[in-house]
Amino acid sequence: MYGKCGRFTVEKPMVLGHEASGTVVKLGTGVKHLNIGDRVAIEPGVPCRKCKLCKTGRYNLCKDVFFCATPPDDGNLCRFYTHAADFCYKLPDNMTLDEGALIEPLAVGIYSSRRANIGLGDKLLICGADIDNNRLSMAKSLGADYTIKVTTSDPKELANQIEDVMGCQPDATIECSGTDFSMRTGIYATYPGGSVILVGRGSADAEVPLTLTFCFLFSYPAAIEFIKNGFVNVKPLISHHFALKDTVQAFETARSRDSKAVKVMIHCDQ
Ligand SMILES: [Zn+2]
């Protein structure tokens, strides 16, 4: 048994799954905003609601958080799953459950952009797709002005290449790979006074000072509005579909570069 995500270490078997949607089949007493049959997106982190951080509106920093598929908490890759009702967000009629599952990564993007104070006209560097040709071409097709395939191991050299390609230093960087190399590159590349947002998590001992947080803070309603109104189309990101019984094959596909997988859906009702 091995595996790590930031400060969390896998020590015993656990249920995976933290990007999920589902249909309500049972309600706890007192739940007023949902009905049986509602389709919902599940925000995977449920904080304690009692500590100072929760009470001052920074629940993503709560130390006593339940987070799906983060040791020791089980995830929601299963047929029936119980979750705090106030962290289940009802999906509009025009949204599919597939889109509902992608509310989670979209909410990460929205929260990261808010933290970076990105505004109209700002130049943005996003690190994370930069060693995979398929993901780079997808980034281009979904709106990136430029893409750069990383070929150097020197973060300063890469920062210079980025400035050459963009014609300027980015106002903000959103680092999604979780590698120390990419974190350092983002810091070197970003315009002085700009923001470097660390989304990806790799080693717990990164050579830059970090306070690890979860990447939401009430971004689900905005993510749902984005898809509902057609501002964002998450469907192109869904590359594969599997039934729950084929979960192992789904994970093999997700980790294979040759499969060109981006987001792999596992359907728990099949
Ligand atoms: Zn708390």
TrEMBL record:
Keyword Cell membrane (UniProt): no
CDD domains the UniProt entry points to: sorbitol_DH
Cofactor(s) for this UniProt protein: Zn(2+)
Keyword Calcium: no
Residues in Alcohol dehydrogenase-like C-terminal domain copies: 126-211
Family: Belongs to the zinc-containing alcohol dehydrogenase family.
PANTHER family, A to Z: SORBITOL DEHYDROGENASE
Protein name: Sorbitol dehydrogenase
